[in-house]
Amino acid sequence: MIRQVSVDDRLLHGQVAFYWTSYYNLDMILVLNDEAANDEFTKMILGLAKPREVRLQIAEVEAGFEIVRRQLESPDNVLIIVGSLFDANQVLEHFRELKTLNLGGLRMRPNGKVLNERTALTSEDIAICRRLLERKITITVRHSPEVAESLLTESVLKQL
Asked: C-alpha angle 127/131/137, rounded to 5°?
């Protein structure tokens, strides 16, 4: 069972590894990121960041679709992490049964607009969020289960 699809440009780090793992009682973390999947050093670092009792799979976004497909019917609790809204859109476009997306952390980039202390969106990100909202995808903004969840809505996007 896919418990959450989350965007975090740092991919797997302490907050993701420990807070979300216990919150969802995760069995597996699936990182879908083209760069990480093709970089042995990054894969090693991500492997060190995960909790010992949780499986980790790292795959290119499109190559990971088969893994996602298997996990949709699995009894295992799975967190999917992508590094960008572009990648999240690919996953959600391919798997229409996934109806929620969490924005965990997107650091400031050129021309970014601050959404909160951990998340900044570029104009491309905002356009993707609008398309997702049009498709009735619920977008939450929450870097940790320890903080209150907030919804990203069109009215919030208009303020950016």
From this structure: 125
